[in-house]
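Regression check, iron/sulfur cluster case 309:
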Amino acid sequence: MTTDNRPEFLLMSGGEAMLHPQLVRRIAEHARHIGARTYVLSGMFFAKSRRIPSAIRSAILAVDHFSASMDVFHEQEVPRKAVFKVLRQLLDEGTDVSLQIVGLGPDDPYLSDLVNDVRTTFDDRVPMFVAGVAPQGRARDWFTREQQTHPPVQQTPCSLAAWPVVGFDGNVTACGNQDVMDGNVPMPPHLLLGNILVDDWAIIKERCLSSPMVRALRTVGPQYLARNLGGRVCSGYCETCWLLSEDPSVPSQVARVADEPRTRALEVATELVTAEAGPVAFARQWGIARYAELVLLGLSEQERARCHA
Ligand code: SF4
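Current build output:
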């Protein structure tokens, strides 16, 4: 978020954003008009066509960054070869592209095969964010996380709680958690920032920056809050977050200390550490650590040095 009242970067994902290419183009053009940048994520259903359909091509040209989503299930619908062909064309035309890849874990042979294929085919020009599948979306019905024992809980700030996301119903949440967005879990009151029918960006931004619970999530993370303030620590990080307002004493304790100088000091220090850690640290936290460095592919030496600074 910028210091003035405009978003800095808008991500359009799905579902499948490219089913509405005119809307994607209009949002991208408006964003550019107000000085913001845009990024669209697509499952590439159109890659099997002989040529990129013209409306989709215009939408891709209008955004600042285009990312293709790939996993073993996607590949059964849209072959790798077709995705690579489109990415090759976009790269050669100067479009900024990347891949978001999901697999079963660090040892999934699908991931090593695909990563090697991308690196060889595109000569390390395409950055990749590689993450593990979670029991969300289509994987909700078949993927179960192994039971984890609970080690002593330390602060694990949630850097995603700084990323307001608009859902299909217009609700804006403090992060893009898929189960929250899809309504698979009751909306946690502490994550709801408003609705675009009635709230403009200035209001959403103000709530995101000032909400004591959202600030606390960004500073110490959900498990630390639950463990120390009486909430339930569940099997997962986000699962623990969803239940934090279940006991009203948790948000009220957070609100009570929100404006203490030591709370503010801790927030500022955490923000600095998180920002300075850079994109590889982000990819290590939210993706598969072994592949975290791949987010830097395609950058110049100078750009890479800035990311590690
Ligand atoms: S911990 Fe909470 S705020 Fe962070 S990503 Fe998960 S659900 Fe969103």
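Comparison notes: The beta strands are 9-12, 37-42, 65-70, 97-103, 128-132, 165-166, 171-173, 192-195. Residues 158, 160-161, 174-175, 177, 191, 217, 222, 237-238, 241 surround iron/sulfur cluster (CB under 6 Å). No diff flagged against the previous build.
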